Input
Amino acid sequence: MTLPDQCPDGYVADVRAQVGNRLLLLPAVSVHIRDDVGRLLLVHQIDRQQWGTVGGAVEPGESPADAAVREAREETGLEVELTGLVAALGGPGFQMTYPNGDECAYISIVFDARVVGGELVADGVEVSQCAWFTKDDLETADISTVSRSVLLAVGALQPAAATHPE
Output
């Protein structure tokens, strides 16, 4: 997930300058990109050293759909076509504290997508790796709290697998 608090310029940085580490409610997208055999693309997040779904914050003036396409391109190098709006999620499982102490609660808009172009390459800034996961792979992967909550809510992850320690 794109980390809005790590960007030196921009909307969230401006708000953070006013409120410090206090809790912010932020709109976000989660992009579930699947390959031809049904595997889900996850990204290894540099800040948390965990796997997560492709996605991030919706910028002011940007639609969630445009944010989903932008985040997929930025994090993975892939051009995607959104194939469905899956869910709008929020609640306790979507709140987190970043390593720098910034607290965020996300309202996550979840999209399904397919690859239509580009080359799979991690951005090297937020994401160190990109990998395709089978349903079985997801059950044992070390997945970040918010991404785990998304995958659990949409049925891509079973409740027993959702309890891995951080």
